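Why does residue order matter? Because the sequence determines the fold. Keep that principle in mind as you read this record.
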Amino acid sequence: MARHNNGSPETATLEGKLGAWVQDTRTVLQRRCEECVEEVRRSPSRSMLTAVGVGYLLRMLPLTTIIAGLLHLVLALIRPAVLIFCAAKLYDTVQQPAEKPASAPGDRAET
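Structure:
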């Protein structure tokens, strides 16, 4: 996958910081996963009871209602967001000074 970099130091710094953050996050998650596996090996019955308890609590939560509510909220806010975005772009377009049309190759320059 080709990356387009405009060569600016800000872009390089941002990419470097983002790459470092992703690598740090990956390392932390791998370490936590290994710790979890070790804990399950040390006490499998406790881990099983914990998993059953968490599953029961998750089953009690109204996740379907929460997800449906968030979906309705997002769908209700999409139209105003698109309208505001388009209005801002239109405003930017109107505020830009009119550019001179390019002269044709046969036109004479004004003096």
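The CA atoms of residues 21 and 70 lie 29 Å apart.
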